[in-house]
Amino acid sequence: FFTLPTDSMSWAADLRKLAEAAEKLQAAGWPPSFLWVYDEAWVILRQIRPVLSKVLGMDTCFDLFAFHALPGQSWLPPHRDRPYTIQRRELMTSSFRADGMPMYAACWIPLTDMSQTGSCLMCVPKSLDAGYKQASDSSPIAGLHELDKIRPLSMGAGSLCVLSHRLYHWGKIADSLGSDGAAPGPCTALCLAV
Fold first, then answer.
1. pTM of this structure
2. Are 13 and 46 in contact (CB under 8 A)?
């Protein structure tokens, strides 16, 4: 859908401390999504909300997550996001507005670098996905000779990525060694829906 580079937002909260908190939560047996009990996560939401509203014409729906995946750990299976079932007649037939914009999107804010050799998001772009505008959960990469459709969404800590609810995406398991020969670090991100 779209990305903003690391230097596009001057975050009012310390992302490194949030990443450390996610690691501590997980080590203590708590889900990383408990980051949302901290003020710093809400400061980020308050900061990004006007941008998302202006660009997408949508407001946050408080569908909030956080991820902390260690290298070698599977952390997000391949899927398409779905809007919640809304009992309003005008939303029952399509999850896209008349102008083609989706009515639901996910905003990712990496708290750590998500490199191509690390645990980055992977996706199949709309232009290569025949099922993007169909009511189907089928994988656009199932079958032979379909893997060339896959694109990595590597992002730096503090960048921003907004995905349409129909974009087929997943979290890549980190390679054992990064491009610099060192083991990659964990993948930690906040995710919120609009």
1. 0.88
2. no
Q: Is the dihedral of CA 55, 9, 107, 134 positive or negative?
A: positive
For 70-108, letters b (16+ CB in 10 Å) and e give ebeeebbeeebbeeeeeeeeeeeeebeeeeeebbbbbbb
Beta bridge partners, 190, equal 66, 109
Find, among 25, 77, 45, 78, the residue nearest to 193 by Cα. 45
Q: Which residue has the higher pLDDT, 1 or 187?
A: 187
Closest CA to 8 of 172, 159, 167, 146: 159
Q: Could you read off the pLDDT of 61-120 as tens digits, one per residue?
A: 888 999 999 888 888 999 888 744 445 555 555 777 888 888 889 999 999 999 888 888
User: Are the C-beta atoms of residues 153 and 123 closer than 8 Å to each other?
Assistant: yes
Using alpha carbons, select from 75, 77, 65 the residue that is nearest to residue 139.
Answer: 77
Neighbours of 161 (CB within 10 A): 23
117 three-state secondary structure: coil
| CA gap 88, 177 in Å, rounded | 49
Task: Determine what percent of the chain is predicted with pLDDT higher than 90.
Answer: 48
